[in-house]
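Handout, section 4.2: multi-component inputs.
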Amino acid sequence: MLRNQKRYKVISNKKVCANFFRLSLNAKFLLKKIKPGQFVHLRVSDGLKPFFRRPFSVFRAQKSLEILYEVVGDGTQILSKKKRNSSIDCLGPLGTPFSMPPKGIKQVVMVAGGVGVAPFLLLTDKLKNKGYDLILLYGGRTRGHVFSFKEFQQNGCKVFVSTDDGSIGVKGRVSKLFTKINLAKPTFIYTCGPKPMMASVQAFAKKNKIKGQASLEEVMACGVGTCLGCSTKTKHGYKTVCHDGPVFDLDEVIFQGGA
Amino acid sequence: MKLNVKIGKVQFKNPVTVASGTFGYIEKYCSPSKISQLGAIVPKTVTLNLREGNPSPRIVETPSGMINAIGIENQGIDNFLSEKLPKLTKFKIPVILSISANTDKEFVTLAKKVNNAKGICAIELNLSCPNLKKKQLVAQDAKATYRLVKAVKKVCKKPVIAKLTPNVTNIVEIAQAAKKAGADAVSLVNTFAAMAIDIKNRKPVLGNIVGGLSGPAIKPIALKMVYDIYRETKMPIIAMGGIMTNDDALEFLIAGASMVAVGTASFVNPNASIEILSGIKKYMKKNKIKDIKQLIGSIRT
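Output:
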């Protein structure tokens, strides 16, 4: 009963680093509609395994709709085997997008953990050439969990990397990179990644009186705000990640065991 | 081809509806013309006062199904009647309102509030939500079921449907109690009490620890319960429990259900209920069945 359920053909589905894949769909319908931070809900198998659809942030929407994903379980395993010209049942665009930085902002900082980097390329496509200093602080477990960030640099974005094992960039958590932020400039922060990481971003932002937004991830069933399964606690009560989010104001979210 | 079915005094144009808690009208996404094709809509269970719902995680995927412990998150009956109902009545199809409460008295209060609401054609008493941390559900006790249905029937001007839990030894006995108390129909099954454990940290996956299993995994069990109740009581049944396809729906109709409700399937395939309706029509055409009533309870044993 939803208007935006369609099947799209796979153009390509390639491994881009040890743990990440890049899927490209022939989804012309979506290219102009999708906004940074929104997601698509893919039925990776037409059978019953896995049972749920899987939500993915949109990574890029130029000639095709692109998704960056990490193989973490059954669903992404099946997705990684999709061949060119096969087709996937897709719901989208779904969710509330990032809002644009408020007036007066000079510096836009994106703090990403692992595959949480996915929604930010589309965001920089939108924010480039608008006079912002664009900075990506990108943390991963190892080199294999850090995707080539060339396209971010092509969008005029400065990229700083950290890894838990130091195999690329600074050794340690992404919070080690907060020193790269010029606190003298009016700044807006976007973050997406594991909850403890986003909680540290929230604490940093609060301490420095910086506003921002967080893109959350939860297990979803419907993806459209019906089942209330993906609800997350916020200062304004439970909100659905799929419909009220996935993007929330950074100070609104309550990260469990968080900041 | 006649598809209409009757529950109490209410006529439904066809037997396909949605299960409570699985249909939410989202203006942004829904296609109104498709919704209007359904026989009825059943919105998420409403309680007297606002309920915040259970802590997350609230759902977990399981083989051929899911476990949920949402906890009847809703804004309360007054908000429903003033804000949500007008959006639903514009589809011009009957709304069956699912209600839940902590006591008989609260159920009666809710039923009275619904009496004058235009567009609501029947009440479904949710006697069986497994996620409210109660030791025993009303629908786990024949006497309690009888008492509650009787109390609601006394004040309610609209048909009353008792929604039953499968978590009982003998579901027929509960259906009989509901029938004796005047229930116009029963709906079944609600979810099966279930849980999942994360072996990495040995913690329950769900914030509520336990929840209710739905989806195709439960279909054969639900079907047998519908079959049993129809055979013993011949009362109208709204069947739900893992209906994914028109074949599933047809099985339930043949077993004795007057209506079928599509639930969890809609999360995976939002168009499932509409596809099931057209599949039933195709089957009837192919088998030269002119009236859906010829199909209901037509199992050859």
